[in-house]
Amino acid sequence: MGLLEAGVAVVHGKLVENFRMPSAEDAYYETLIVPGFSDGHAHPQVVDGGLRDGRLWRDSYDWLERRELAVDEARVRRDLSISQRLATLSLLRGLLEGTTLMALTGRLLANVKALLSLRRRPRAVLLPTVMDRAGWTLEEVREDYARASYLVSDGLARMGIFVHSLRLAGESTVREAIRIAARSGAVLGLHLGEGVSEGERFRAIFGNPPYSLRIVPVHCIDDDMSSLGLSCVACPATNVMLYGRTRRDLSGISAFGSDWPLLIGTTPVHLPLMIKAYRDSPLLILRSATVGGYRLYNVPHDGDYVAYDESLEEVLRGRASPRLVVVNGEAAVREGRLVEGGHDRESLLKMIEETIGEALELYGNGYSASRILREHQEAFSRWAEWQGSP
Ligand SMILES: [Zn+2]
């Protein structure tokens, strides 16, 4: 048995200097984060957010209705091969950025296949998206759900159902989703309050706490769900990129999501934006960005950590690359490279661009992957420098 030492560690959001813990081998790192980062909301099949010319939307329904995507999203998701590769790349990008838990919405079968194709992977919560639209109905998702529940019973992944939103899923769909999730011990996630207050509508359908299952609302820009006994996954990066605003304090929020991992990276690279957006202390933000997501989804975190050769300040600037990423006691990243496959972040980003390019060639309107990635990166960077008022 060896000893892993770190100049500074952040353990469950608490700062510990000269940290030591038993490990398979002796090693010293400047900074250690325990557990690793959680990305509580990620759409791995999103290859365009429709951001053009700095335009902002009123709320998520306005965005869904009026955005002009460079790609036919429904067809991308129907293409199992490309959807699976996009999910695999999302998971691997997460690992290289220090994300050890990811909650994946979108196409369930593609996400499960991606998970099962990797021996070294982040822990995952599988939240197939359900809404009353062809290709997304509960009936259609149900069969895959039963198969996936059986396949992922290995402790590293857990099941959930993601009701897209209270306007795109009717009350009977929501009630049936609640029933299935409650019966199978799954989490129920949903977009809520994404630019428009939906707390009252939520209460009308779900009633008052305590609830018969674990409910995870996502975004909650306009609703503080703590009054209903719930905690939210906030996505501050896409909130500001789409709507120009986000909550300014962490009340009612206990985890973060990236929303678009392939376009703007996973939560650890959003840290500078979070630190600008929230008035709370960086350690509180780090607690939500790490153990917060694990607790919200009730996922174990034993043997999950991320180690850096750089200072904690660099980690908070979102610029540090983890040297070592460990999930369930097994290294998934060593010396900044994936243990399985050997890619570093730069070569993985190249693969992401190629695969998005392929999706655009098949189902797009002529935009190039480099243009879309540049537009989203630029919007993200602009907001990461954001000093705005609430
Ligand atoms: Zn979302």
Plain-language structure description:
With 390 residues, the chain is α/β, with parallel strands linked by helices. It has one domain (37-300, 346-384): Metal-dependent hydrolases (TIM Barrel), CATH 3.20.20. The chain has helices spanning 60-66, 73-78, 80-97, 108-116, 138-151, 171-183, 199-206, 236-243, 261-264, 271-277, 282-297, 312-316, 345-363, 369-384; strands spanning 2-11, 14-23, 27-34, 37-42, 99-104, 123-126, 129-130, 157-163, 187-192, 215-219, 232-234, 253-256, 305-308, 324-327, 330-334, 337-338. Strands 2-1-3-13-14-15-16 form a seven-stranded mixed β-sheet. Strands 4, 5, 6, 7, 8, 9 and 10 form a seven-stranded parallel β-sheet that branches. Helix 3 runs antiparallel to helix 13 (345-363) and helix 8 (236-243) packs across helix 14 (369-384). The longest helix is centred in the last third of the chain and has 19 residues, at 345-363. The termini are far apart. The model has no long low-confidence stretch (mean pLDDT 94). Zinc ion binds at residues 41, 43, 191, 218, 259.
